[in-house]
Design goal:
It is built from 17 helices and 32 strands. By secondary structure, it is of the alpha+beta class. Strand 24 and strand 25 form a beta hairpin. The two termini are 30 Å apart. The C terminus is likely disordered.
Length: 754
C-alpha cells in the first residue's frame, strides 16, 4: 500500500491533538519541530514573553533558516535585537558581545539589505545599547516583538500555511482507534496504551528520534533499553540518568538504586576510551566500562518497575498510518461529504465502553481467520441477570410504545388503552444503570417511582373509532410529549401531565412521527402520505408522496440530511431534507428471507439509524436487515432460528455494538450488529407470571427500548402491561460469561446471515 504524504501529515495532526489533550507538552512541541506541519505561534510567543529567547530561537530554527527568505532573516534579526538589548541590561555589555559575535554571524546580508537596523542597535565604538532600546519593564518590548513577528510569519512562505491547526473533533485519534480495536479497552492499560504503542512505532519509522524518546519518558509505557545503551555508549550519562529517572527513582527498589549507581560509576570512567569485549565475551574478560553497561542492562531486566516495559509489541509495518487510511477510506465512502478532511473524523462518545468494531469491514476482502465458536449465554432465571419489574397500578393492557428520556432519567410507556405510564428516579438513585462487576441483590436496586402529579391528572390519548386499525406513537421534545393512539396528536407536559394542545384529524390517521432539526415534525399517515409541519409557524411545509400503504416508521440521518420512511407493504423511501425530493425507493421484501414454518410478511415494523447515522436497521416480523443509508441497498440480513416465532421489536444498543430482538415466544435475543451472531438469549416467560384475570396465557416482549448511554441496559414492554428493566450481572456485557469453545473451524451459528 502506498501511503502518501497527505495521510502522514493528517496523522501527525491527530497525534499532536492527542499529545495536547493528554498533557504531553514536551512531546507535543518536539513533534511540531520534527514534523514541521504546524508552527505553534502561541508557544513561540510565550517563550519570548517569558524571556526564553533560546527556546524561541530553537523553535523557529526547526521551521526555517535566516537565509531562507527576507521574512525569515527579518524574524531572526528582530529576535536577535531583543535578545541583545536585554543581555546588555543584565551584564552591561559582556553578554551582549557574545550574542553579537555568535548570533549575528548566522544572519546573512542580502542584496536589498541596509545597515540601518543594525546601527539602531549598536554603537561601533563600545558595543553598548542605545538608551532608546533599553527597557526597565521588558514586557511591552517583548509584546511588541511578538506582534511584529506574527505579521512576518503570516507573510513568510515557510510559515504562512502552518499557523492554523485544523478543526478536529475531541479525541479524534482515540475515536479512530476505538473504531478499529474492539477488545483493547478491556485490558489493563487499554485503549490509550495501545494507541501510545502505535504512535511510538510511527515516530520510530518516521525517524522523529527526539519526539520518540521524549514520549517514552512522558508516557512510561515502553522502556527503550537500546536507547539507554546508545546514550551511555556515546558518553551522554546525563541523558541516561534523565531517561532512567522518568521511569523510576533510586529509592524505588534495590535494582533502581543499583542502576543509578552504575551510571555514576561510568561517569567516573568517562575520561577513559571506549573498550570492546574480548572474543570470549565473558564478564571476566570485559573491561570495567563494558561490565558496567552489561550490569545496567541486567538490572533493568530484573527491576520490577521496568521488566514489564522492556518488550515492545510486535505489529505490522506502518500500522497506525495504515489503519488510519483504511478507516478514513471506509468512513468517507459512507458520509455525505466524500472528503478525507480531518473534520470528517468520526466521533466515538463511549471511549470507556466496548468500542464499535470496523475490523471485519476493513478486512472483508482479505483472507478469513479462524473463528472462535461459542455457545450463546442462556438466561432462564431472574437470578442470572439484574432484573427489575417497574411498579404499576394501572391496567394490564399491552405496552404498545416504550422509550427512555434522552438523558435516561425516566422511562415512558404507552399502553393499548391509550394510557401513558412514566417512571422516574433521581440521578443519585440511578446507579443500577452503570456497569458493576458484582452481582446486584434485589435490595440494591433503586426504587423507581410511577410518577403521578399532585393534580391527579393522567396522560391519556384520544382513541380511534376502530381500535383494531389504530396505531400508537409518541415522540419527546424537551419537556413535552407528542402522542397519539389513533385520534388527534395530543401534546402533554410530562411534568404536570397537563394536555396543552391537540392537532390533526382522525382521518387520515397519524401512524408515526418524529422531530427533525429545524423545528420540524414529520408525520406519517395511514394513507401513505407524509406531512412536514413547521412547529414555530404551525404550518405544513411539505407533503411527501411516494407510498401507497400506511406509514409504519420514519427515521432521520443528520449525517446525510435524509429521511427514510417505511410502509406496511415493505417499501422504503429515501427523501432529501433540504429539497424534500424523493432520492430513491426500494422494496425491502426478499424471497430468500422466508422460513419453512413462518409465513413471509412484507410489513416493516420498525426502522432505525445506527448511532453513527450511516446504516439503517430494518425490522420485519420474520427477519431484520442492515441497509446502506444513501442507497437503501441491503448489506446484511438475519433470519432467526426456525424455532423462534415472529419478531415483535428490535433496536440498536446505544453504542451500536449489539441489536436487541424481541420475539412473540417470550425471548429476547442479543446479537452482534456486525456479524448477527447471537451472544445471549433471555427467556422472559420465567420472569413474570400471568394475572388470573388476564386472558393472555404468557407474557412476551412487545417492544424493547435501549438506554441512551448504557449499552447493556434495556427495558422491555410486555404483553401483560408490565415493564421490566434488564442488565447483565457482569461488567463486560451480555456475552462475557458465555463458555468458549474453539472447534478449529469457522463460525456456524444456528441463525443464518446473508
Amino acid at each position: 500500500m502506498i501511503l502518501d504524504e497527505k495521510n502522514r501529515k493528517n496523522l501527525v495532526f491527530l497525534i499532536l491533538q492527542f499529545f495536547d489533550e493528554e498533557g504531553y507538552e514536551e512531546s507535543l512541541h518536539l513533534l511540531e519541530q520534527d514534523s514541521r506541519v504546524f508552527f505553534d505561534f502561541s508557544y513561540f510567543s510565550n517563550a519570548i514573553l517569558n524571556g526564553n529567547f533560546k527556546e524561541a530561537d530553537d523553535y523557529l530554527l526547526a521551521f526555517t533558516r535566516p537565509e531562507a527568505n527576507t521574512y525569515s532573516r527579518k524574524m531572526f534579526f528582530d529576535l536577535f535585537k531583543r535578545k541583545l538589548s536585554e543581555a546588555s541590561d543584565r551584564s552591561g555589555g559582556s553578554e551582549a558581545v557574545n550574542i553579537f559575535s555568535k548570533d549575528l554571524r548566522r544572519i546573512p546580508v542580502l542584496k536589498d539589505d541596509s545597515f540601518d537596523d543594525l546601527v539602531e542597535v549598536i554603537a561601533v565604538d563600545d558595543m553598548r545599547i542605545l538608551e532608546g532600546t533599553c527597557c526597565v519593564d521588558k514586557a511591552p518590548g517583548r509584546a511588541k516583538l511578538c506582534v511584529d513577528l506574527h505579521k512576518l510569519a503570516e507573510s513568510n512562505p515557510c510559515l504562512c500555511d502552518k499557523l492554523e491547526f485544523p478543526r478536529l473533533n475531541i479525541s479524534a485519534l482515540m475515536s479512530l482507534i476505538s473504531l478499529i480495536c474492539p477488545n483493547c479497552s478491556g485490558r489493563n492499560g487499554g485503549l490509550k496504551e495501545d494507541l501510545i504503542c502505535l504512535i511510538l512505532q510511527f515516530l520510530y519509522e518516521a525517524k522523529y528520534k527526539n519526539t520518540l524518546h521524549k514520549l517514552e519518558q512522558e508516557t512510561k509505557v515502553f522502556f527503550n533499553l537500546n536507547y539507554l545503551a546508545e546514550v551511555m555508549k556515546l558518553g551522554e550519562y546525563g541523558k541516561a540518568e534523565e531517561y532512567l529517572g522518568a521511569f523510576t527513582d533510586s529509592k524505588d527498589n534495590k535494582y533502581s538504586k543499583a542502576m543509578f549507581l552504575e551510571i555514576q560509576k561510568l561517569m567516573c570512567l568517562q575520561s577513559t576510551e571506549w573498550e570492546v569485549a574480548t572474543a570470549s565475551g565473558s564478564l571476566d574478560n570485559m573491561s570495567p566500562k563494558i561490565k558496567l553497561h552489561a550490569s545496567v542492562a541486567m538490572l533493568a531486566k530484573k527491576n520490577p518497575v521496568l521488566k514489564d516495559k522492556l518488550k515492545f509489541p510486535s505489529m505490522e509495518k506502518s500500522r497506525l498510518l495504515t489503519l488510519m487510511k483504511q478507516t478514513m477510506d471506509w468512513w468517507t465512502s459512507r458520509t455525505c461529504n466524500n472528503s478525507s478532511s480531518l473534520e470528517n473524523v468520526p466521533v466515538v462518545s463511549y471511549l470507556c465502553g466496548t468500542p464499535f468494531s470496523l475490523k471485519k469491514k476493513i478486512n472483508k476482502t482479505g483472507q478469513r481467520k479462524k473463528v472462535v465458536n461459542y455457545k450463546p449465554n442462556e438466561i432462564n432465571d431472574p437470578s442470572q441477570c439484574n432484573a427489575l419489574i417497574l411498579p404499576d397500578y394501572f391496567s394490564e393492557e399491552m405496552i404498545a410504545r416504550l422509550t427512555y428520556s434522552p438523558s435516561g432519567d425516566y422511562i415512558l410507556a404507552l399502553a393499548e388503552d391509550a394510557t401513558h405510564k412514566l417512571w422516574t428516579w433521581s440521578s443519585s438513585q440511578n446507579e443500577f444503570c452503570k456497569y458493576t462487576p458484582r452481582i446486584l441483590k434485589e435490595n440494591v436496586f433503586p426504587k423507581p417511582r410511577l410518577h403521578q402529579p399532585q393534580s391527579g391528572k393522567t396522560m391519556k390519548n384520544e382513541m380511534a373509532a376502530s381500535v383494531q386499525n389504530s396505531t400508537s406513537c409518541f415522540a419527546i421534545k424537551g419537556s413535552y410529549l407528542f402522542s397519539t393512539s389513533g385520534g388527534k396528536i395530543a401534546v402533554f407536559d410530562v411534568k404536570s401531565f397537563e394536555k396543552v394542545a391537540a392537532f390533526g384529524s382522525p382521518t387520515p390517521m397519524a401512524t408515526y412521527f418524529i422531530f427533525i432539526p429545524g423545528d420540524l415534525l414529520a408525520v406519517g399517515l395511514d394513507d401513505g402520505s407524509i406531512f412536514i409541519h413547521c412547529l414555530s409557524s404551525r404550518k405544513v411545509k411539505e407533503k411527501l408522496e411516494g407510498h401507497d400503504q400506511k406509514i409504519t416508521c420514519i427515521a432521520f440521518s443528520h449525517c446525510f440530511n435524509v429521511l427514510v420512511s417505511s410502509d406496511s407493504d415493505g417499501k422504503l423511501c429515501l427523501w432529501s431534507t433540504k429539497s424534500w425530493v424523493k432520492l430513491t425507493s426500494k422494496n425491502s421484501t426478499r424471497k430468500f428471507c422466508t422460513r419453512s414454518n413462518h409465513e413471509s410478511t412484507s410489513l416493516v415494523t420498525h426502522i432505525q439509524f445506527d448511532p453513527y447515522q450511516i446504516e439503517l436497521l430494518v425490522v420485519h416480523e420474520g427477519w431484520i436487515g442492515i441497509y446502506e443509508a444513501r442507497t437503501l441497498d441491503c448489506r446484511l440480513q438475519w433470519v432467526p432460528d426456525e424455532s423462534d416465532t415472529s419478531i415483535t421489536s428490535a433496536t440498536y444498543s446505544s453504542d451500536g455494538e449489539i441489536i436487541y430482538v424481541g420475539f412473540r415466544s417470550g425471548f429476547i435475543k442479543i446479537v452482534d450488529s456486525r456479524t448477527f451472531m447471537t451472544v445471549c438469549r433471555i427467556n422472559l416467560t420465567s420472569f413474570t407470571q400471568p394475572s388470573p384475570n388476564n386472558i393472555r396465557l404468557e407474557a412476551y416482549p412487545t417492544v424493547v427500548a435501549a438506554h441512551p448511554s448504557h449499552p447493556s441496559q434495556i427495558s422491555a414492554g410486555l404483553s401483560n402491561g408490565k415493564v421490566i428493566v434488564l442488565q447483565p450481572l457482569w461488567s463486560g456485557g451480555w456475552g462475557e460469561a458465555a463458555p468458549l469453545e474453539d472447534n478449529g473451524g469457522y463460525s456456524n451459528d444456528s441463525d443464518h446471515s446473508y
